[in-house]
């Protein structure tokens, strides 16, 4: 029974971790800070959450890099659609990650750079 509770706890917090990226829609910058704080405070308490946290932080770093490249490419106008696409997938991917986490799976974000392993 204890194992069942631990699994449910992991699923719940992993879901929160992925969805916390959307906090940036309400408060600028919160979508970067909240997931990192959640991960750092809970990773030792909940076995398995560390993998979700690393995936989320890698995605955050990836979006920052892609955003910087897109901003530079705005000079030649190709960056505008790239930034629009990045904004869209920055909403969609965390939702997919949360659904997969709720189902007990670790979802690898497409296009995610593996910076933290």
UniProtKB/TrEMBL annotation:
It is found in: Membrane. It is a multi-pass membrane protein. It holds the Pfam family MamF_MmsF. This is DUF4870 domain-containing protein. The chain crosses the membrane at residues 20-39, 59-78. Keywords: Membrane, Transmembrane, Transmembrane helix.
């Amino acid at each position: 029974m204890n194992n069942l509770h631990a699994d449910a706890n992991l699923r719940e917090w992993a879901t929160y971790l992925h969805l916390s990226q959307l906090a940036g829609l309400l408060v600028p910058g919160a979508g970067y800070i909240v997931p990192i704080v959640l991960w750092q405070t809970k990773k030792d308490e909940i076995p398995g959450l560390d993998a979700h946290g690393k995936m989320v932080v890698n995605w955050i770093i990836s979006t920052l890099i892609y955003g910087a490249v897109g901003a530079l490419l705005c000079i030649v106008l190709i960056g505008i659609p790239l930034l629009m696409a990045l904004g869209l997938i920055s909403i969609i991917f965390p939702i997919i990650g949360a659904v997969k986490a709720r189902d007990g799976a670790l979802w690898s974000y497409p296009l995610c750079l593996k910076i933290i392993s």
